[in-house]
Amino acid sequence: MSNSDSANIKRWFEQRGEIFRHYVMESKRLVVVEVDANNEIVEANLAFRARIIGFETVQGQPLSRFLTRSDQYQRLEVDVERDSQIAIESIFTALLGGERYLFYAYPLQDRRLLIGEQLHIQDHDMLNRMGNVTLDMSRLVKKLRKTNHELAHANELNQTLARTDGLTQVANRRYFMERLHAAVALAQRYRQPLCLIMLDLDFFKRINDQFGHEGGDKVLIGFAQLLLAQIRPGDFPGRLGGEEFGLYLPNTALPAALTVAERLRYSTLTLEPLPYQCPLSVSIGVASLAADEDVTQFMRRADVCLYRAKSLGRNQVIADPFS
Asked: Which residue, 73, 69, 84, is CA-closest to 127?
């Protein structure tokens, strides 16, 4: 069994999971004691403490003070399914309060859980009964693994949905801004270059009017796919709204950013997201982060360049002269 499975069982135990706690720790018939790596008692149930006389608390006491261990049995493994194996560390008999008990030790990562029952029947029958307890635990491990997997998957999916533009599958504006703030802070701290590219598809309203919103959506999706295909590892694109996109390039100086921007501009001219003729072009503004500049100032300079590209006839790249 993996450490993660053991940790799940331990977490369930420590959080007083209803099923597990009811079955063992709250049992009046089974004596249950949890010990650490030094065999000192961490916790014991009422059935265990009731058999100890003269101790207000057993926590921190060595287990050997209460148990006299005797017969040692074989290791027992129960495999309900291949991915849900429970291994009992050991099975042994011991004297507790003058009575003989059969215990099994179940590993909980850096601790052990000892569960025992008084011997009033044949040993082999007792082993069968303790095996049934192990079967229950095996089912519990399987349930925990399945639940944790489902929760992790759901959490990952929710995070992806919260960060992603539903149409284009690139980062949405909020997540892009979060990442840009972090990138600016990192660049300022280590004095590294950082460039921001703002992109706006030309005459997009005309595309929507001519081909409808479905056609416009296909154009946006196609352009986003172009961005993802053309950028380098580490570059980060996002849809900022409508037909406007952003792209920041960490550890990149202005000449290299202009090369990327020009490549995107040219590639957009060849893009054919619709089955009929629909010429596409993009206007682009580029700025390089200045010393001690914040995100708002950085974006404003890139936006000014973008608007200038639009006013000068579109389908061109304009760089900030102060970058």
From this structure: 73
> One of 89, 117, 178, 243 is an active-site residue; which one?
243
Write down the domain spans for the chain. 3-161, 173-319
Question: What are the tens digits of pLDDT across the range 195-222?
Answer: 999 999 999 999 999 989 999 999 999 9
Average pLDDT, the chain: 81
Tell me the per-residue pLDDT of 242-276, one tens digit each, with 9 for 90 and over.
999 999 999 999 999 999 999 999 999 999 888 77
Q: Are 9 and 141 in contact (CB under 8 A)?
A: yes
From the CA atom positions of the chain, what is the Rg in Å? Answer: 33
Q: Are 201 and 257 in contact (CB under 8 A)?
A: no
Q: CATH assignment of 3-161, given 3.40.640.10, 1.10.760.10, 3.30.450.260, 3.40.50.300?
A: 3.30.450.260
- Tallying the residues shown for the chain, one arrives at 323
316 within 8 A of 283, measured Cβ to Cβ: yes
pTM of the model as a whole: 0.55
User: Would you say domain 173-319 falls under CATH 3.40.50.1110?
Assistant: no
Mean pLDDT for 118-130 is 59
Distance CA 171, CA 163 (A): 6
3-state secondary structure of 246: strand
Contact call for residues 85 and 76 (beta carbons, < 8 A):
no
244 has catalytic annotation: no
